[in-house]
Amino acid sequence: MESGSHDTLEGVLKQRIHGCVRRLAGWLEADVTGAARDLTAEREQRQRREAEQARLISELIAARDALEAERDQLKAHCQRIDRELAACVARATELERERNDLRIQLMPNDELSAKMRSEWDVRAAENALHYTNTAEKEWSLDEYFASGEANVREQISTDLANICQGDDPACMRVLEIGCGAGRITRALARMFGEVHGVDISGEMLRRARNHLAGCDNVFLHQTSGLDLSVVPPAAFDFAFSYIVFQHIPAKEVVENYIRDTGRLLKSGRLFKFQVQGYPAAGAEVADTWLGACFTAAEMHTIAERHGFELRHHHGEGTQDFWLWFFKR
After folding, report:
1. Would you call 116 exposed, middle or buried from its count of C-beta atoms within 10 A (0-12, 13-18, 19+)?
2. What is the mean pLDDT of residues 168-178?
3. Domain end among 106, 133, 153
4. CA–CA separation, 118 vs 290, rounded Å?
5. What pLDDT does 93 receive?
6. What is the mean pLDDT of the chain?
7. Does pLDDT of 283 surpass 50?
8. How far apart, in whole angstroms, are the C-alpha atoms of residue 79 and residue 91?
9. Among 30, 98, 104, 276, who pairs with 246 as Cys (CB 3.0-4.6 Å)?
10. Same-domain status, 200 and 321
11. Is 314 helix (H, G, I), strand (E, B) or coil?
12. CA 217 to mean position of chain CA atoms
């Protein structure tokens, strides 16, 4: 009896234990299943987020690439517009210069001469020393004439082989075109035997005569501003002009001076002069300050036309365009 009761109790306990185990296993299985389900859902959500992020990144990269391509197109377009604009400005400048050249060419000689004389007379009355050497606004006479001496040292004393060609400077007759108030003329008179200076401005020449009163070997002449017909038909050994032609607005007038200088120079002798070579400084209509601009090709043609040989030049494209014209 006791043995049977024990077995029955043991069986009941086993059943209860098995029931607890089954319930526990069910709970664990439910928990594991739920956790797996949650993990799967989280993984799927994370994958969706990553896919969405990848899509957005791809769209952003595509948008960036499109913007960069558009930027490059706009940059190329702007550069093309800049080039076209620069070409238009250059062409407009060229057309304006051509128009002004034509207006100057069509201006009657007497009108151009009167304009140049009047404006240089005004400048002479206002401040002759400054307008004939703009390095200073106010010059003392000593400093002013010292600047002329410096120019002669730089442009003539260093070039005596071409200028004198073995002759004694004291025995040479020299022509200076555009003598102004006598700044360079006085230095020339100290070096050469006879100096003739010409200028369009009576006011400039009046000051030059005062400044050169003690120079017995200097002769001054007022020109029409168009040629050298006023100069006596003497045989000159050397001709010189500095910061003069750069103020003449008409190329024809500059060429007239070159032609007449050729008429006055001895054969084989030098005409050394400076012209405006900077294109942007081309004259406005009959501008008597910023004169006509020349190129080396133009000067070669002018030299040939008037019996000169252009042996040397330097400074083309600048304001100080120097030329060596030798009379054939």
Report:
1. buried
2. 98
3. 106
4. 16
5. 65
6. 91
7. no
8. 18
9. 276
10. yes
11. strand
12. 43
